[in-house]
Amino acid sequence: MRAPVSPAQWNRLIDRLFDLAAPYLAVRGDMDHARVSHQYARLLLRREGGDPKVVEPAVILHDVGWSALEPDQIRAAYGVRPSGEEANRLNRTHEVAGAVIAGEILESIDYDRSLTEAIVTIIERHDSGDDPAGLEEKLVKDADRLWRFSKIGLWQELEKQGGIGPREYHDFVGARIETWFYTPTAADLAREEWARRAVEIARRGALT
């Protein structure tokens, strides 16, 4: 199947990908993460360029691989504090499994094979790859990380990770703005969102 050319066709395909990804994303409660990251990806595409036929499916499907892990393994691999060889191994497992699952999903809708190859390559290294091969991979990584700065994302991450307060988490992500992002647009968005979250955290603190 060639990628749809009209906006309406493309949006229908995106909706279908979300539907197909939903059972896998449900394992870690990642649907909001996928949707918010996808919104950021579209904004980055408008400002930075890149191929939406690669970036958008990759962002939607990038975390389907967590479904291959047990809940205790997800907890061991995920968050601010997990580190070490076991955490890295489990995180790598979700990338590799995610690439396989994403390939199967895209094959099930007969998506363009050359685009599928690019998508699964990005998914297989979306966390561990430190040297993005091209703009599309940069945009996926940036959209993924921007989630942590969003209003929904910051508070959901606190609930998922546990044992860390909002100010500590806010400081954690803020300290990484200059090193996490590959595009100027993403770094600017992160700074803007980080400032908004600081106001929200201060307000919540004043009410407690």
* Uncertain stretches of 5 or more adjacent residues: none
- So how many helices? 11
- CATH C-level category: Mainly Alpha
Question: Radius of gyration from the CA trace?
Answer: 17 Å
CATH superfamily, by name, is: Hypothetical protein af1432
Helix/strand/pairing category: mainly alpha
Just name the CATH architecture.
Answer: Orthogonal Bundle
Descriptive notes:
The protein has 208 residues and is mainly alpha-helical. It has a single domain (7-207), classed as Hypothetical protein af1432. 72% of the residues lie in helices and 0% in strands. It has 11 helices and no strands. Helix 2 (31-48) packs antiparallel against helix 3 and helix 4 packs across helix 5. The N and C termini lie far apart (54 Å).
Summarize the helices and strands and which ones pair or pack.
Layout: H1 7-25, H2 31-48, H3 52-61, H4 71-77, H5 85-108, H6 113-123, H7 135-146, H8 151-161, H9 166-174, H10 177-180, H11 184-207
Q: Would you kindly provide a brief summary of this structure?
A:
The protein has 208 residues and is an all-alpha fold. The protein has helices at residues 7-25, 31-48, 52-61, 71-77, 85-108, 113-123, 135-146, 151-161, 166-174, 177-180, 184-207.
